[in-house]
Amino acid sequence: MNKRDFPKIHFYDQDFVDIYDKSWNWLSDFWLDPASDEISPDGYFVYPSKNQLVLDQFESIFSSFFLVYSNRNYPANKNIDYFYEHQEENGAIRWKYDLKTSKPITTKQNPEGVGLPLFAWAEFNLYHKSANKRRIKEIMPVLQKYMDWLDRTFKQQNGLYAVPHEASTMFNSPRKGCVYPVDFNSCVAINAAHMSALGDILNDKDISFQYKRMYFSLKTRINGLMWDSETGFYHDLDKNEQRLPQKTVAGFWPLLAELPNADRADTLIAHLTNPKTFGTDHPFPTLSADSPDFKESGEGYKGSVIPPINFMIIKGLEKYQQYGFARECAIRHLYYILEGLSPADSKKKGDLYEGYLPCKEGAAVCKTDSAFPRARFMHYVGLSTIALMIENVIGLNISLPRKTVDWIIPNLEIMGIEKLSLKRNLVTILSNKTSRGWEIQMESEKLYYFTINILDQKKKTLPIPSGKCSMLIDKL
Fold it and tell me: Does the predicted model carry a pTM greater than 0.85?
């Protein structure tokens, strides 16, 4: 596949540009046809394994957030559609499927095979990158049946959901005694909020109201039972609704769900800069550094830095307008990914990994699971090298149905994007220092609305006509 088919990014650090370009090229090795095991553009986006080809709900949902930027070279919704097609009569969608047999994979720890319910979040993002309203109409009955199944199977009298904490994919996280996981319950809230938003897109007031009510009900219960004012953190609950002592990264999901008020959010976010808890050199460990179980070697989910978890936290920071901090975290995280790809010790071979060390550069390790971390694990790392690169390092937020491009940057730097396909419209936005001052050059085939937000300095929205144009920042 030709590299110029993908949107091209400009950034003053060429290493960032190189890893972004390489990521698009490496992705082509992971589209596999389950019938032949061969690489095929018509296959599924799956990590090859010797024993079986497994399609994973968590990986499929998260990878859609960077596949949307492939200029339609890769389908962002193909894996997700597989899960919808395998919905059972009772509404169940399982967390993993064997692509060879089409059978769900369950475990002793997770007998129902339930995964984090985030389909509506992914669909809301797909809609804003494709403006395909018909798709929402088609999948809404599937999503409703799925939410009904979650309610019937896992919702308890206290209004919270009791599921095995393994459903979050944090396989060895020290969450003994957990009956009500904070991440799963927050994800139900995230999904409900986005179901309501999808109802608004369809102009269906009943759907919108039903899920808005569900969201606020969960918000009240999570804030009432799971927040601990002494630790300034959200905790899992045991069977008696008592808060468990461990501070795991699951406690940051409420940010993405917009559950904490401003004061609580500030307290929670402060943990991300506190070196004693989650402010490690490589942001962010999956377990608080002051936990007796924390391991500097990562040891699976006892401290490793996991790209989709970082993506979730950074998107949560955006919900509270922490754009500068979100960008700073994304850049630091990317520097550690670059270190892992080209280690300073030339004898060591580098790669992109499923998990990283929290306190220095390099891949995490796990003595109890030799398969962790998987190398060249694009399903996770693409979120950092592509999605965070476009959305947080360069700072672009795009919505096709709204015809808007928001550019949020802390200060002016030489950077931008070239030939990003918005349906049938190729957009280029570049900032450069010229003799006349800072200039933004743009090119587009159709009109759109451009908002530039230079943090704490100026914010302006302008209609951008089709064709080429430029603007001087000083004149805004």
Answer: yes
